[in-house]
Design brief:
About 50% of the residues are buried. This protein has a two-stranded antiparallel ribbon with strand order 1-2. The chain is mostly helical. Helix content is about 75%, strand content about 0%. The protein has 22 helices and 2 strands.
């Protein structure tokens, strides 16, 4: 009841309230009948599909490298590809803006693909590492070329993982906010940015509600497909014992490995460009942007200093992470317990999908829903400092579940049965068996959730007050105001966020459970 109660109060209620308010007029008919709406929908689907294709193509050689190759530096590759996924959207947006100042469709597609290579690579590699090489060897012995052995034997076995990862990547790209806002400007709009525009700038609640309905319907469909693909992948992994599948590449495999290293190098280009831009001034190299973070920018562009915003970010991210851990672990325990009690698989999948819904619903919809509903709760949370951590926890909780749930499901039931036969109560079985085995993943999930909350931009941009803005919000405001000093401060703040992100990713990689987990 804990995760479902929180989901009902802080997600379903606000979303339902704003949709109900918007649909009180003719908004749905008006929006659905407008050609501009379908242009936005078409661009949203098109850029998401293109980004997904680019991410899958780029990630497959990396997945091969992680799953099949025994080469020096694999751990570095594994950590390096995870860095883009957890970078704040404003950081990635500014990084690609430094490379492509004019923005445009290509920059949006590449930036979204940059974010999601890790999702495909690590998800596919997780299943690929469980596939027995003997099937491929048999195909080769019967005369198949390496390419035909891959397309006829390996690729069909990998389809559940590829389908699951592609569905999630498509969802992330379709609901991308910060990247499209920074790189698309007023020329290119997705459903997410259009909802923001109609809610904040135009106060067109009925139009925003209609667009939210379209988005929610698409999100539910994608999440159902992802859940089905994920179940197929988990079943495939359960049927195969993990065998030693890594060795040094042979023949044409060296070209695939080289391509993987090239993809990793390409992922580092925007990051390096961001660091270089942060120390570039009109007079040469300098740290003016970093020093200026102790102030409020050119001609007082900010209401708080950059350092105060960093403190606000750390405080909100810590609170959001603790809350997300409570909710995510509780939800994971519920889902695992239902699975072990042989509950109907459809019910378990429905509950799992419901807990993933916050990943795809517009953060603007949730934020505005908070402002029109939470005054009914004791204390009027609309003016509380807890509003931002609550919104961030809604975003982080599904990611925590995806990291903890596969680990708990992988615990050998014979260990739990042995503990029970020796007299342990169900609670003691959890305490003595499940929690110790999942401890490393719990810490990794906490670190992972922390950096995601630290860089959260969508909901926070709508809810944070000017005097309590977080660092991503300050970056967005600095880049939209004139003055070279403001730009230098924005790039310096982005670099600081990136350094924290890299440090946490290294911690996550060190604590990683090697045989299970979504990431």
């Amino acid at each position: 009841m804990v995760p479902l109660g929180f989901l009902a109060v802080f997600f379903l209620w606000p979303v339902a309230a704003i949709i109900q308010r918007g649909l009180g007029s003719d908004g749905l008919v008006r929006v659905l009948g407008s050609p501009d709406t379908w242009s936005v929908v078409l661009f949203t689907v098109g850029q998401a599909a293109a980004s997904t294709v680019v991410a899958v193509i780029a990630a497959m050689p990396v997945a091969f490298l992680l799953a099949r190759c025994a080469l020096p530096g694999i751990a570095v590759v594994r950590a390096a590809i995870l860095v883009p996924f957890v970078l704040p959207t404003v950081v990635v947006g500014l990084a690609f803006r430094s490379l492509m100042p004019d923005g445009g469709v290509l920059s949006i597609v590449l930036a979204n693909a940059f974010f999601n290579v890790a999702v495909v690579a690590r998800t596919v590699a997780g299943l690929w590492s469980h596939l027995d090489r003997r099937a491929e060897n048999a195909a080769r012995a019967l005369g198949a070329s390496p390419l035909r052995a891959f397309t006829s034997v390996t690729l069909p076995a990998l389809r559940p993982a590829i389908g699951s990862a592609a569905a999630i990547v498509f969802l992330f790209c379709a609901t991308s906010f910060g990247v499209v806002l920074l790189l698309g400007g007023a020329r290119y709009r997705t459903l997410e940015t259009e909802i923001y525009l109609r809610t904040v700038d135009l106060l067109d609640l009925s139009g925003a509600a209609a667009l939210s309905l379209i988005q929610i319907t698409a999100v539910v469909a994608v999440l159902v497909l992802a859940a089905l693909a994920r179940r197929r992948r988990e079943t495939a992994m359960a049927l195969r014992a993990r065998t030693e599948t890594t060795r040094r590449p042979r023949g044409g495999e060296w070209w695939v490995a080289a391509t993987a290293y090239a993809v990793v190098a390409a992922l580092m280009v925007p990051i390096v460009a961001l660091v270089v831009r942060s120390v570039s001034t009109s007079d040469g190299w300098g740290l003016d942007g970093y020093r200026a973070l102790s102030g409020t920018g050119f001609r007082g562009s900010l209401q708080i200093s950059g350092l105060d915003a960093a403190v606000n970010s750390l405080r909100a991210a810590t609170d959001a992470t603790l809350l997300a851990l409570l909710l995510g672990v509780s939800a994971s325990v519920v889902l695992v317990s239902l699975g072990r009690s042989r509950a109907h698989p459809g019910f378990v999948d429905t509950l799992d999908t419901a807990l993933m819904l916050p990943l795809g619903v517009s953060a603007v919809t949730v934020g505005f829903g908070y402002l029109i509903t939470l005054d009914a709760l004791p204390g009027d949370l609309r003016t509380s400092a807890a509003l931002v951590p609550l919104a961030q926890a809604i975003v982080v909780t599904p990611l925590v579940i995806r990291m903890i749930l596969p680990v708990l499901r992988s615990v050998d039931p014979r260990l739990r049965q042995a503990a029970g036969s020796l007299g342990a109560s169900p609670w003691r079985v959890w305490r003595e068996v499940d929690i110790p085995l999942a401890g490393r993943s719990l810490i990794a999930a906490a670190a992972f959730g922390f950096v995601v909350a630290l860089g959260e931009f969508g909901a926070t941009s709508f809810l944070a007050r000017p005097d309590s803005a977080t660092l991503p919000i300050v970056i967005g405001r600095l880049i939209s105001r004139p003055g070279e000093l403001n730009n230098q401060m924005a790039y310096a703040a982005c670099t600081m966020l990136m350094v924290v992100t890299v440090a946490v990713v290294l911690l996550v990689e060190r604590l990683r459970v090697r045989s299970v987990g979504e990431f």
